[in-house]
Amino acid sequence: MRDLSDLTFRSATAADAQSIRDLLQGSDLPTSDLSAVRPDFVIAEHAGQLIGIGALERFGTAALLRSVAVELQWRGCGIGRLIIAELEQRARAAGIAELILLTLAARDFFAHLGYGSKPREEVPAAVLGSAEFRSLCPASAHCMAKALAPA
Ligand SMILES: CC(C)(COP(=O)(O)OP(=O)(O)OC[C@H]1O[C@@H](n2cnc3c(N)ncnc32)[C@H](O)[C@@H]1OP(=O)(O)O)[C@@H](O)C(=O)NCCC(=O)NCCS
After folding, report:
1. Which domains does the chain have, with CATH numbers?
2. What pTM value is reported for the model?
């Protein structure tokens, strides 16, 4: 088991842009809307090295939880769970009441962390208008959501 005691989280800066793209592309996740949309990325670091990322794209009191990826050699040791917890904490503190996501490959991972299936017709219009919903994720992607208790 990896030692996660050195794991830290910070907000991404412009200097992280290429590392974020590399990790998303290596994880088969979309990058084409990143410069236009500028979601808020969180970086997970171990001993100064980027090992995972995740982001929130806000739409009023809801947010799209997106671009969650862990470096291959670090998968399966709890980093993904900690990234989601960090994003949920930041979302709550920002007054976000619901996190919504689309996933192809990680449905069971999110179900494990309390996310339930959400019919697309119940997704707020602003979120449905995002690039991820309109064009980046195929119609077969599974929509999931979690309500957040207020901070
Ligand atoms: C999905 C992903 C972020 C998970 O990260 P990870 O660090 O490997 O996950 P964790 O080790 O924190 O797993 C947390 C829990 O979920 C479970 N889990 C992880 N991946 C799972 C999967 N694909 N299916 C079912 N359960 C899964 C783990 O067993 C663990 O359960 P436990 O706490 O009871 O032991 C990682 O596999 C990844 O980067 N995938 C490619 C990108 C992607 O698909 N991102 C999601 C769409 S945004």
Report:
1. 7-147 (3.40.630.30)
2. 0.95
Whether the CB of 29 sits within 6 Å of ligand 1: yes
**Ligand 1 site, residue 81, Cβ cutoff 6 A:** yes
Shortest CA distance to 101 belongs to which of 145, 56, 151? Answer: 145
CB 124 within 8 A of CB 147: no
Q: Does 79 sit in the ligand 1 pocket, CB within 6 Å?
A: yes
Distance 81 CA to ligand 1 centre (A): 7
Buried b (16+ CB within 10 A) or exposed e, 115-131: beebeeeebeeebeebb
Report mean pLDDT in 10-residue bins for the chain, 151 residues. 87 94 95 85 95 97 97 96 98 97 95 97 94 86 95 78
